[in-house]
Structures are given as structure tokens and as C-alpha cells.
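Q: Start with the shorter request: fold the first protein.
A: Done. Sequence, then structure:
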Amino acid sequence: MNQVSLVLSVALILSLRGGEATDSTWGDSISFTLYEEQDIGTAVGSVTIEDGYTYRFTDTLDEFELDSATGEITTKTVIDREALTDDTFQLVVLSSVPIYTIEVEIEILDINDNAPLFSQTTLSVSFSESTGIGTTKILDTASDADIDENDVTSDYEIVSGNEDGKFKLSIVEVSSGSALLYLETIDSLDREETAEYSLNISVRDGGSPALYGFLIVSVVVSDANDNTPEFQQQFYEATLAETADAGTTVLTVSAADSDDGTNAAITYSIYDDDDASGLFQIDASTGVITTYWSLSGMSVQASYMLTVEAEDGGSPALSSKAYVEIEIEDENTHEPVVTFNIVGGSGSEVTMSEDTAVGTVVAVVSVTDQDLGTNGETELMLISGNELGHFELVT
């Protein structure tokens, strides 16, 4: 059998809604368009048929079927453009003998059925509270499975979490046509005021109506050493027995720092011990002041004034000072010591003439007591040997 091939170039584009090509003849090429996500049985278009012929696709198709009697092409399934490797189908309709072919091209058009998506739904960034205004952090941009006017736009917006107005979004278009998204500070940050922000960022696509994608950005404000340790009191008072053993607790000083981490770690020290000569020590971590030596048998002052310091762990470190007054509480542990200085004699005996004048000084008596306060106060009395009243003590 001889076959005649007639090649005609016919380009016909029909719309989805019932459009139909003009009469197709042998070797025709016909084009149709179809929006994705249409119902099963949606008409794509028709090829012109000849009486006495039957028609079929050269391949078995999952997406389309051909009515041999009418030449109408309809969908067999709901087609998702984004699931296709190619959004254009190249089909061939084959007639019965004598055989001729009709080439059919069906282009699947996009609808706005996909919202913009970020690569991750949550993201964490960190700014130091000492950072300057205008500091930026790069954020992920969104993508959209749709194309053309339905694709993602560069309309990014902080929709919540920025009530204090600390941040803004900056978009930078690059030569490739893509965009870079930055989070930028527009006001100073204070970790002690707000340690973390949760920003809800949206982006829309160009469809009508538009679809939106969202990204939650957790902004952590890291600490800068901008707070000085503060003592609970600027002046502390304590009393301590003069017989206190080594390691006796005197009192505890305490300071706090509003910073975080090492910037809030406090170390205590005795900055000045007022000539206590190392009599007291302080625990660097707890602020507990104790005696370094036993006070028993030592010559101590009535009181001591210490200057203690609290220093944080920042770089550079910040510090503050407080005063601690420690009063030594006397216990009556010493007996008075009486000393005689005989006038005109020696030892403890005095020889006097019977005509010695009244008021003559016989001896000078002195008394010392190492105790403090009232415990160191003494009183002299003649308690015996003066029954005749010949002598008296004059102070």
C-alpha cells in the first residue's frame, strides 16, 4: 500500500472553556491549553474527524482520553502542574486505515494553588544588646511552587511581635533576580528589659486572591556587661566575741547583677581591711566573712571597718563596694592588775614616823585591765587593815 504524507503546519490555541480547533486534516498539529486542577471529564478540545475512520492515541495515557466518535479530548484525572516534569504534553492521534496522524500539544497552565513556603517554619537569630542600630541578620526567603504572576513576591512584612518597633525588614534585589531578606535593628536593645522577641513574618504571592506564607523568627538578645553588681546593703554591721575561734562566721554580704551568664557571675573580696592584718577573710563565691585567726589571746581593736568588693565576670569587669563594721564584743576574761609604787620605801612595806602629817602620800596605786568597755573599768577600795581609819584612797 502506498501512503501519502501531507505535512501541514497548523497552530491552533484553544482556551479551556469549550474552545475547539478548526478542521484538522492529515498531518495537522493542534495546540490546546488547560488549567491545572480541573475536574475529571473536563473538555480540553477536539480534533476534526473524518467519516468512516476511528481514532486513538498512539500511547495509553493516564491523563487524557479521546472520544473516537466525536474527536473530543477530556481529562481522566485531576492534573497538578507542580507534579509534572514537563507542563506540556506532546500527543499523537492515530487514525484507522488509511492511517494519518494528528499531533496534539496540551499545555498545562498554572493556577494559584500553592502558598509561599519558607525552608523552615521557625528560625532563631541573636543580637547583642550592645549592638548598634542598623545591624542586620540574614533571613531565609520563601519560595513558591507556582509560577509567573502566582509566584512569591518580595512583599515581606513583620505582622506581629514588633510592637516596640525594634526591627524592620530589608529587601535587597540581586542581579540573578532573586531577593535577599535581612532583619535590621532600628532601635537599641536591652536584654534586661526584653530578652527575646518572637517575630511573625509574612510574605504573599502575586495571585488573586493572594496566598501567604509565614516564618516565626525568635530573636534572642544576648547579654553585654552593662550592669554593675549591686550590694543588697551599702553598710553592714556585725558583732564578734573577742574569744571567737578561727573560721567563726561574722556575717554574709550579698550582691546581684542584672546581666546574664559570666557577666553576672560575682566574685567577692576584701578590698581594704582597716589594719586588721588579715584577721578576716571572705569566701569569693558566697560572700561569707569569717575570722582567719582565733581572737583569743590577741590584742584586738574595739572595732574594724572593712571595705568589701563585688566584681562580675565581664570583660572588662565591673565592680562595686560596700562597708562592713565589725564590733569586737568584750568578754570579761582579764583580771585587773594592781601595781604599788611605795613613796620613800621599797617592796611592799612602808615605815612611817608617828608624827607624819595628815595627807602624806604613802604609795601610788595603779590598776590596768585588758578587757574593753565596762569590763575594763575598775574600782579601788581598801577592804582590810584600815580599821582605825588612818588611811584613805584618793583618786
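Q: Next, the second protein, separately.
A: Sequence, then structure:
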Amino acid sequence: MAGESMLQTMSETEGVTTLPSGVRIHILEHGEGGSRPSAASAVKIHYHGTLPDGTIFDSTLGQEEPISLAVGQLIPGFKEGLLKLSEGDTAMIGIPCDLAYGADGSVDGRVPGGAAIFFKVQLLDILSAGIGGGPTLLGADGQKFNKSDSSGLLGADGKPM
């Protein structure tokens, strides 16, 4: 399969995380530790997609604006890699062919069948829904609920719990 040796080399690079699926992630620049997207998020990103031989098959570089898209609509490997990034991170994501476009390749023919692909991606902003991490419970006053503070939630009788 095209790109398997590149994925292996990427795995051996210091700082690269190889996920159980085989997707590789190399954080090139850390953001400010912002939120992580979820599969339900819409995000604003810049990206540059290449084949193992360096051929660019898709890119937002050179466009005036980054692209906004739903994480759930991405190919499986790109989605899995993006979900591991925090807002502001720039990373290289290596995706095995079975989590990219598979044996048939992309419908438009730009990615041949059986090819691993590589994305350099910058997660600029999480635009909506499903930000990763634990849920935050808000009190009646709209502030984050603190279990030790009884003034946040009201019971059925309207009194603080």
C-alpha cells in the first residue's frame, strides 16, 4: 500500500502519537490549551493534504479564508486525528488507506486507491456544538455550579438545593 513506509517512519519520529487505529498525530505547534472539538462540532481549519509522493490533492492554503466544516463529515482518519487536537494546535496527521479513501480512492480520482494520506492541519476555531471535555452544569444564575455552593441550583419548591 502506498505510504505505509512513510507512516512507519512517522511513527518512529519523536513526539508522534500512534492511535490504536493506526492514525499518526504529530503536534507541530501547540495552541493555548483551548477546547477540543467533538464529532458534533463545526470547526474552522486550514489544511494541506498530500499523497506519499508529495502531490497536493487538497488545500485551503492560498485561499483568503480558512474552511468551516462539520467534523462528522470528514473521512474517518482525519476526524479521529482532529478530535485529538486542541483549539490553536497545528499538527501533521498521517492516515492509513483504510481510514482515508480505501482501496477505491477518492470519487474525484485525486487520491488513488490504497494510498495513505497526510494532512497538515491548523485548528483555528471551534464554531459550534459538542466541544470535547466534561459537561458543565450551570446554576439558576447562569454561573458554573459548584457542589459546595448551595446557591446555584433550585429545587422543585424554588428553594436552593
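Q: Describe the second briefly.
A: Residues 131-135 have pLDDT under 50 and may be disordered. Helices lie at 4-11, 76-82.
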